């Protein structure tokens, strides 16, 4: 890719956590790559996901870095209530803090201690264990999703949301339903696509929220169909 969008290309950027990143499968098998292949040469689908990112991280990432890449579409694959709604400006910490963080981020000792601490708390809550219907205070509205939508609208960028599928015992569960996303926006029906595929859930997921090659292919095809339906207004 180039920072400047090539002429005649519709540039799509996908954001989310390790599910979007494609953890457990090759780069070419992530749903972003599958969608780009299905859409053809006049489309560019850039996988901008970062493992562990939540909607707050994605929103701030978009605000700080993404406009320079001239995207036509942002695809957001995050759970609606995974973090509080952003309510302030971003202030970068001093360089000394950055250096301190870099030291620990690359420290094996840090990860060893963190691993020991986590393993010692067997009953600790995990983010995937949260009730998908959890609502913070009404002040937050749709969490950071509506802030991402507002950011896109202000710049003439289409924002597409995706329902967030996970494996629950022997079925597909949806951690972000359509009703939990800002109304009126296009939604990629990832949960419905996997549920109605007829495949056993073990063929679709590697673990709770990471999809197999088959799962990524089905979601990638659904993403391509959703994006294709937007093409008339994207090429105006």
Summarize the structure.
This protein has 236 residues and is an alpha/beta fold.
How would you sum up this structure, described in words?
The chain has 236 residues and is an alpha/beta fold. Helix content is 38%, strand content 14%. The chain has nine helices and seven strands. A five-stranded parallel β-sheet has the order 2-1-3-4-7, with helices on both faces. Strands 5-6 form a two-stranded antiparallel sheet.
List the helices and strands and how they pair.
Blueprint: E1 10-16, H1 18-21, H2 31-39, E2 43-47, H3 55-65, E3 73-77, H4 95-105, H5 108-120, H6 145-154, E4 158-162, E5 165-168, E6 171-174, E7 187-188, H7 190-195, H8 201-204, H9 213-234
Parallel strand pairs: 1-2, 1-3, 3-4, 4-7
Antiparallel strand pairs: 5-6
Outline the low-pLDDT stretches: 127-134
Largest sheet: 5 strands, parallel
Rg, Cα atoms, Å: 18 Å
Rounded to the nearest angstrom, the distance between the terminal CA atoms is: 23 Å
Structural class: alpha/beta
Number of helices: 9
Count the beta strands.
7
The share of residues in extended strands comes to 5-15%
Question: Order of SSEs, N→C?
Answer: EHHEHEHHHEEEEHHH
